[in-house]
Amino acid sequence: MKVVKWMKEVPHDLAELIAGYSWERITIGRSDAMTFLLKGPIYNQYLKIQPNHSMENLSDEKERLEWLQGRLSVPKVLYYNKDEANEYLLTTEITGINASDKAYETNLPLLIELLAAGLKKIHSLSIEGCPFSKNLDVKIEEARKRIENGLVDEGDFDSVRIGIKAKDLFDELFSKRPTNEDLVFTHGDYCLPNIIINEGKVSGFIDWGRAGISDRYQDLALVIRSIAYNFGENHIPLFLKTYGVTGLDELKIFYYQLMDEFF
């Protein structure tokens, strides 16, 4: 559906909130949601639109963003609603440029240190009273449901798994489950496009729909892969040193990258 059509399809009360904004489709990322940058004369906003039949719900992200207010620098929820077909989530913009931008190639050591510091800050949040569980029981069950509903994109697997069927990967996911979990509050998708940097500092974090209490390797595995993909594996040791990893658990890195194939 073209942007102009979406501008006419949103609920009336949302249309009033965003009247006068120009729309730009954001295509980075693999979410079921369509994301639009709404450019205004004073400030910008982000609008996500997602079909109601999606396995993941924008209401999940809304609840997490609201819980995180005052705890971390995250977007503020301006509007949430749903109609017969879609969910709608309108949030503020975090000022800056996402960490995958090639502009950071001029000072990659600083970028890597910022990524590590940002993750340490997330993982330092107290999980006492946190209502969002993403432990292995939850994640494995979510993976199973995604297979049953045909929502696993086998064509988008990492190169080492191309050609393998999702159901066969699930057998591996089940059989290689780690025997312990080092539970912390995790972002759930700590990849470079979701970390925003401004004036040499991390200004905030976006895309919180998968956040919750999980093993810290949920985030470590994905950011390691993201660093390698965007800027090369040679930057991973600096990240690990800055974060404070001593004795990297390679089996957990493998496992949580395997887990990500289902999402």
UniProtKB/TrEMBL annotation:
UniProt signal peptide: none
Q: Where is the Aminoglycoside phosphotransferase domain?
A: 25-252
CDD domains the UniProt entry points to: APH
Q: What are the protein's UniProt keywords? A: Antibiotic resistance, ATP-binding, Kinase, Nucleotide-binding, Transferase
Domain of life of the source = Bacteria
InterPro entries the UniProt entry points to: AGP_Transferase, Aminoglycoside_PTrfase, Kan/Strep_kinase, Kinase-like_dom_sf
- Keyword ATP-binding assigned to the entry: answer is yes
Q: Which PANTHER family match?
A: 3'-PHOSPHOTRANSFERASE, PUTATIVE-RELATED, AMINOGLYCOSIDE PHOSPHOTRANSFERASE-RELATED-RELATED
The family classification in the record reads: Belongs to the aminoglycoside phosphotransferase family.
Name the UniProt record assigns to this protein: APH(3') family aminoglycoside O-phosphotransferase
